[in-house]
Amino acid sequence: MEQPDVSVVVVTWNALPWLEQCLDSVRGRDVIVVDHGSTDGTVPFVRERSPEVRLLEQENKGMGGGNNAGMCAASGRYYFLLNSDAWVLGDGLDELVRLADAHPEAAVVGPKLLNTDGTLQRSVRGEPTLWGLATEYLFIRKLAPGTRLLNPLYRGDFAHDELAEVDWLYGPALLVRREAAEAVGLFDEDFFMFSEEVDWLTRFRRAGWKVLFFPGAEVVHVGGASHGGRLYVENLRGQLRFFAKHKGLKEAERARRLLLWSLRLRVLLLRREEYRAGVRFLSSGDARALLS
Length: 292
Description:
Mean pLDDT: 94
Strand content: 15-25%
CATH superfamily of the largest domain: Spore Coat Polysaccharide Biosynthesis Protein SpsA, Chain A
CATH architecture of the largest domain: Alpha-Beta Complex
Number of strands: 12
Radius of gyration: 19 Å
């Protein structure tokens, strides 16, 4: 059998109602759905509406673990990792493959992301640093959101209108070169839900590969459809894990203290429960203990 250009991997956990648009946008491709114990009818929906899709069912191993299972079952030259609440517009996937073929140095190519109303969803990111965390969690980026100095994490200076090499990309839709993934390894499954893509793309760059943003392909992304924003503490844990892995435990501890005091300020100002949960988590031990 001829090797397909692309194997599409979609990880699901209670993925309705957006899954139909997601799968329709890649119909005719080699598609693998990895389900993590959905209870909303996702599994029978896939079996009935898309019988050609390969369906894998496993315990919930997070986004990285789910994508890893799909990639291990895939046969394409490229993996296209597509969130269940995202869908490709037009021939965007073909455009991504053409661009990747023209740039063999690129491990990952990401499309332009759009909100459901057609507005831009910013996806180009800068590598996390303590200053980057400070600009986000202390509201500093609000002072000049269109600058890289005060908005480095979300690349406030980047217009998302040109092909560019970037640090990393927000991950609802990523085309990944199989050869690069085999050389560098798959997702680190210690990252359950957040920061898994920044870790992976950082590892690609450290190994000499490039990460490219390509506005010639577009994907609509709903955002937060499965987790509904309920995993705030897991987000914090992922950030600490990234710092510990790539910058050392001392820097991770500095990040923990910065996040803790930032969230204490947010509790005073905004009194939201997720910030209280974050404070409880970050004050329950040092970075080493929180990641053990």
